[in-house]
Structures are given as C-alpha cells and as structure tokens.
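Supplementary material to the annual report.
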Amino acid sequence: MNKNETAELNRRDFLKGSSFATLMTMLGGVELITRAPVQAADLATLVPFQVKCAVIGLGNWGREIIATLSRLKTAQLTAICDTYPASLKRAANSAPNAKGLDDYRKIFDDKEVQAVVIATPTHQHREIVIAALQAGKHVYCEAPLANNIEDAKAIALAAKAARKQVFQAGLQTRSDPQRRFLLDFIRAGASGKAVKAHAQWHKKQSWRMASPNPARERELNWRLSKETSPGLVGELGIHQIDAMSWFLNGRPVSVTGFGSIMQWKDGRDVPDTVEAFFEYPGGAHLTYECTLANSFDADYEMLYGTDAAIMMRGSKAWMFKEVDSPLLGWEVYARKDQFYKETGIALIANATKLTNLTEKATDETAYTTKPLYFALESFLTNANTVSSAVEDFSATFDVNDKAALEKYISEIKLQPAAGYQEGFEATVLAIKANEAVVHGQKVALPKEWFELG
Amino acid sequence: MIQSNGCMVNSKQEKYLMKKNCFLLVGTLALLPVSLRAAEDWVRYNAVPNSSKVKVDGTSTLHDWSVGSTALGGYVEFDPAFDLAKPALGKVNAHCDVRIFVRQLKSDKTDMDNVMYDSMKEKDHRRIDYRLSEMVLKEAPKSPEAPFLFDTKGELIVAGVTNKVQMPVTMVRVGADKLKFTGSTSVKMTSFGIAPPTKLGVFSTGDDVKLTFEWLTARKEQK
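Predicted assembly:
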C-alpha cells in the first residue's frame, strides 16, 4: 500500500479494519449502554432448569436461533425441523444432539418437547403456530406473525386462548435490557418532549438467496414476491417501527408510503427501496427508510426530543443534548463519543448501582450479546415459570378450578417479552405500512384494526 | 398480626418417610390422641386459591431481601366439639397441613430465586410442609369479628429437614364459611441444612429469616 492509499482510507476499508464502536467513537457521541447485571459466583455454573425445545424453519435466521440457544444453559435443543434436506443437514452441524425432522407434526407429537421456536417463512406461520398451541407447546413465533391480517389475528387469538402456555412474538428488542433501560430513561423525561423520530436500514445486498432449481428458488425467495412477502417494511422495518412506537408511547394513526425497485431489477415485484411516514397522536412523526441499494450509515433509530436526541444502534445508545437542556449531573463523568460534529453521551443502565462497582468498567456486553439472546432467554424462563406454576398449582388446589388457575398464572411476574398483543399490533402496522408503500398512498390506521376482541 | 420468636428443636427425619409424605401424614394423624372421632365428622376447611400470602424476609450485607407466594395450600379440620360460636379455652382438637411448592416462592429477581431454589435443594425437596401437632385456644373472640388467639406447636419441613416450631396464631371468621389464619415465626436457614447464599466480596446473607403468613380457608361443602 503506498502513501496515498494510506492517506485516502475509504469508508469501506475503514469498516473492514475497525469495529463499529470505533467508528461511532470517531464520529463522537455519548453512549447509552446497559451494563451486564452482576451474577453471583454460583450463578455462573448453576443450571436452574432446562426447557426441551425445538426449532422449526432452518434458514439463516433459524440457524442464528440454534446458535443462540446453544449459548443458553436453560435450553435443551431436542429437535430441529425443515422440509428441505440440505437446510436440515446444514443446521444439524450446529445441533448434534437434536433430532432432525422433516415434518413439524412429529415435534408436536413428542410429549417431551415443551417449547418451539418458529422461524419458517412468514406466510407459513399460521398453520404451524396454531398446531403447536393445540399440542400444548410454548411458542416463540418470529415477527411478523403473518403476511396478512387475517392470519395474524388467528394466531393472536389462538395464543390468547392458550392460557397455560407462553406465546412470544419475535420482537426481540422488547426483551433487550439496554432498550428497556432506555425506555425508562426516555419516559422519565430525560430527552424532553418527543417531537419526531427516524429509523433506517441500509444495506447493499440483493435479498435473494442462491438456489439449485426453479422450484426451490420460489420457495426460498418468498420475500421477493408480493404474494407471500410483507416487503422490506414488513420483514425488516417491523422491529424498528415497533421499537419507536414503544418509545413514542403511542400507536400511529396513519402511514404514508413510497417504494420503488431501484437496483435489483431481477424479476422481483417487491420494492428494494422504501420510505414510510408514520403519524402519531399528538403530532410526532416517524420517518422510516430502508434500501437494498446503498449501505451508508447502516441501521439505527433516532428519537428527537426538545432537550436531547437519542441515537440507538443495536444495543448501544447515545444522547445528544441541547445547549439549553437541564444538567442531569452524571453526564459530566459519562463516556463521550464524537458523531459527525456532535458529542454523544453514552447511556449505561445501572451504572451507579453498588453491585456494578465490582465489575470492570467495560461495555462489551452491548457488542457481544444480541437482543435475540435476551428474547430467547426470556422465552425459556417464562415457559419454565408458567409450566411450573400450572404443575404446582394443580398439585396444591382443586384442578377443576380453571378460573383460579388462570388468575394465578395471570398474576405471575414474567420476564420482559413481546406477547401476542404486541406481536399482533406490530404485524398489523407492518402490513398496513407495506400496503401504503406498495400503493404509494396514505393509509389511515383506526384503533379497531389493532383490537383482537 | 402476632409477632413471635419461634422456638425450634432440630430432628432429622428418616429419608424414606420424607419421600412418602402422604403415608407419614396419615400415620401421624392416626397415632394422635386427638383423632378419637371419625375424620368424616370433623369440620374441614380447605385453602382458598389466590387468597393467601406467605412471605419470607431476610437480610444481607447488601440489602434486605424478601420472597413470597400466594400458592399456600392445605387444610385445617376441627373436632365437631369445637364450637366457633362458643369456643372453650384450652386444647383444641385439630388437624392442619399447610404446603407450598418451593419454586412458587418468588422475589423480583429471577436469578436470585434460582440461587434460593438451589440452596433449598428444590430438585430433591419440592415442597415446604407444615403440620400442626398441638393447638391451644388462649383467648376467645369477644365478638363475631374478633380474633381467636391460639398457641400452636407443629413441624416445619424444609429442604428435607424437620424442625419443631411453636408460634401464636390468630384466626378470624370471614363471612359465613371462611377462616383466615395469620402468624409469623423466625427460623435459621442453617437449622434446615441450608447454607445462606454468599458472593465473596459482594454480599453475604444473614442466617435468620422471618416467615409471615396469611392463610384463607373455606369450609368444605358437606355431601
């Protein structure tokens, strides 16, 4: 490499040779991070319980789920399932102790399996989720729940009726301690009155998967067809839009969308570049942008308040204060990073707790532990908690008193997770936003659409 | 609510008896002198779901801690000679069996609950049981709403270890067919073979814990 090349380090080389955190540090911001909770010494080795679970749907995300479950000591992966033999074989390498099955019904017939994680194509969720619930399994269903509202409602209603089981929607940021910390921070008014929000997902990639034959091509690339896909805003945007609605503490009243195929003119009919504008009660707006044609600035969410803007990137966050905002105190000592021409203050949950004083002041957790880990951890813990409650309650009181059992279960404190209602609302919003994008129009969102009845 | 410094005598129970609680209970009751009348004549009150609470309070070098539950099951039954309207002071013929599953005791910290279950050997001893052995009415109610005050003796079985406990217990009538019992006692974790959880350099928990309960029972319907 000559002198000029070194001096002209381009963005791509920079990203290759350095971590995202370094990039953020160079750009300059105050970071908002959750510190990992201190664990008692014996907690490190303690295996309090194990939930026998299965994963259905072994694409990229299914394999990510298997990899995450293998890190969770409360998970005992006993079965994996996919109808496509090559996918099954590939996933089996990461799950050597799990049975490989080509039909999900075999999992539901197995009384040993307590919980299932469903990561099949979105349009296949309904049949599998309802069969799983009927078989008495706890269900984790990836988001969106479905590619149409009728299916989403059927899933949510089935989950609502299964009082003795856990249903979790795959909106993993709802379980992320960092996001939960931020929520409290924002609700406490630290950023002032929220006036607008912005989220984006930029990545130059085709979204098309390589396939050996036309039949498999159609099956594998279901995301590229309007018939089966809720589009970029439905498949990717759902997580960011749900998170921002959560932070804005409201549900949009309308969405306006635009979409075009700008780069990948390969026969697909799903736009590769989309924009959506969500209008919230009180006048705040969320702008959402997603493209498969450019990678600049990757993915992040911004919340703009009258006292500060908060930027969230994965599990990390920074606050950018206004000059006239009140002094909180702690930010004087907080880590600060530069972003463009602004200085961001790192937000770290529980940073002042006594238990954390014994911990090394690092923030590695925010990089190494993804929201999916926390979401699956919550799912397994909640599945165990509810199953234990049902078993113990039935051995303590009259087993025929179903109302008493349901009341007992409803009062149990569970780990934070998106349930059927959150999953349904996020799915309806994503489907309607995609509708707005596809037709390039404004869609009103009456509250009745979000109600299950 | 009555405060008490419960007194205890340690006694290890035979392991095979621990695994056969039902047989033990039946055997013990059969030997009690109070069981002179046929059990079916006795007036039985069963625990009401979601209407009771038990709390265990402890200390640590970091902060006080507390776990609790509402799933307090079991029953109490009285000799028909014990008249709630005109109770006689002195010994009351009664049977009482209270139980709770260990993993239904919860705090707001799941990780610490798991440490607690492990310390209490939950996988081998899933339940905490209390069995009444003696009940003496010390003070009768002066009105229908006023409390009955009892002195009680019984056995508390935690983590497979049985200790004798004695404590004052208050009973009040609730409506026409319910009885609510309240009481509390202090015990030492080590007396049940439980090592108080610690983390070197961070915290250690105190050996003494206080159990407080409020237990609602309803009269079993007569056939």
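Residues 371-396 of chain A form the longest helix (26 residues).
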